[in-house]
Design a protein that fits this description.
Elements: H1 6-33, H2 38-46, H3 65-76, H4 80-100, H5 103-114, E1 119-123, E2 139-143, E3 146-157, E4 164-176, E5 179-188, E6 194-196, E7 210-221, E8 225-226, H6 232-268, E9 270-271, E10 274-275, H7 280-308, H8 314-339, H9 349-356, H10 367-377
Parallel strand pairs: 1-4
Antiparallel strand pairs: 2-3, 3-7, 4-5, 5-8, 6-7, 9-10
Length: about 375
């Protein structure tokens, strides 16, 4: 982290201490019981983590996206579920309101989100619309001064907690020149016809809150439109570009957590009369893990700084997510191998990382989507 300022280093140290003293001791039980510890979420709010990249006028900390990534990375070292709760709470919950909302919407919704008193979800993915988000089937039609929404969403993070305030959903609101007009609409939790279905039984991220959503004749005021009508597709693409930086930071933290656990275990584990860490094959494995962490961090730092400077960053965000996601998955596999049989036991953090890390190659744009973005940057679009 040689490129960080003194203030950024202080933030990293603060969140790292919080992760080790507050988050880590709860992680195994939270994962085992599939329970998001809301008191930990509240403490994250008290630390100002949910408000890091937002201006002070809305209750934020006046920081930037690099600061958010630093916090997410530090949390992901010990618990990806907690890290994704922060990432989604900011990137998918609050950021669409800040980027595209009216001043009325911002003043009404942002203060509680940025303080961690409330969470929000972003309803994009559907059973038939994952990577191909243009295949959205959820519809919203104007009936007088109300939107009437029908459809389903799936894999929606932070959508069913006790403090979830609303979800922002993409919906087809008409057609323009024969193409779907997609808009985004804020739907408060508890609105009649809006059902948060039972949580998923997932492979990993077990303490993260994730649900399918159903909309059956849901009526919300016309003023709940977020951004201009028909700009939903373009707006959510920009939100995903930013989110990929944050996911890359999360993946980097996961990769580093695996490395730290594997190094400590290799030093303490005696094999055939000597420490595992003295054997060259183990040393080479750990060295490759270290190189992956370093490369992933450079990639997401670069993308974040471009974003914060107002420069184009979409391709660099895709590169960062690709590199960091693969680093997390590769390091989880190698750490599990270093641990041997113990790496297959859920009580060890590397086992959670092994289960958790695969989604980093899928969520907020699959590996294949990142490759398409990078290929287009090379002028290879078909």
């Amino acid at each position: 982290m040689d490129d960080l300022t003194a203030e950024e280093r202080e933030l990293a140290a603060m969140v790292r201490e919080f992760a080790e003293t507050v988050v880590a001791p709860r992680s195994y039980e939270a994962d085992r019981t599939h329970t998001l510890p809301m008191d930990v979420v509240a403490q994250m709010g008290d630390l100002g983590l949910f408000g890091l990249p937002f201006p002070e006028q809305y209750g934020g900390q006046g920081g930037d996206y690099l600061a958010l990534g630093i916090a997410i990375e530090a949390l992901a070292r010990v618990d990806q579920s907690i890290a994704i709760t922060l990432e989604a709470g900011v990137s998918l919950g609050a950021m669409p309101i800040f980027r595209f909302g009216t001043e009325v919407q911002k003043n009404e919704l942002l203060p509680d989100l940025l303080a961690g008193r409330a969470l929000a979800g972003f309803g994009l993915t559907e059973p038939e619309a994952g990577s191909d988000a243009g295949a959205t089937r959820t519809t919203a039609r104007l009936d007088g001064e109300e939107w009437v929404i029908d459809g389903t969403k799936q894999f929606i993070t932070n959508s069913g907690t006790a403090i979830t305030r609303f979800v922002t959903v993409t919906a087809v609101t008409g057609t323009v020149d024969g193409r779907k007009e997609i808009s985004t609409i804020v739907v408060p939790n508890g609105t009649p016809g809006f059902t948060v279905e039972a949580p998923y039984d997932k492979v990993g991220w077990n303490a993260s809150d994730t649900h399918p959503l159903t909309f059956d004749g849901v009526r919300v005021p016309a003023g709940n439109l977020l951004g201009e009508r028909g700009t939903g597709f373009r707006n959510f693409l920009s939100i995903l570009d930013e989110g990929r930086i944050a996911i890359a930071a999360l993946a980097t933290g996961a990769a580093e957590g695996c490395l730290e656990e594997a190094v400590a275990y290799a030093k303490s584990r005696t094999v055939f009369g000597s420490a595992l860490s003295t054997r060259q094959n183990a040393q080479f494995t750990l060295a490759r893990m270290r190189a992956r962490v370093h490369t992933a961090r450079l990639a997401w730092h670069h993308a974040a700084r471009l974003r914060d400077e107002g420069r184009p960053f979409a391709e660099q965000a895709a590169i960062a997510k690709l590199v960091a996601g693969e680093a997390a998955m590769d390091n989880a596999r190698d750490a599990t191998q270093i641990f041997g049989g113990n790496g297959f036991m859920n009580e060890f953090p590397v086992a959670r990382h092994y289960r958790d890390s695969k989604i980093l190659e899928i969520g907020e744009g699959t590996t294949e989507v990142q490759l398409l973005v990078i290929a287009r940057g090379l002028g290879l679009a078909g």
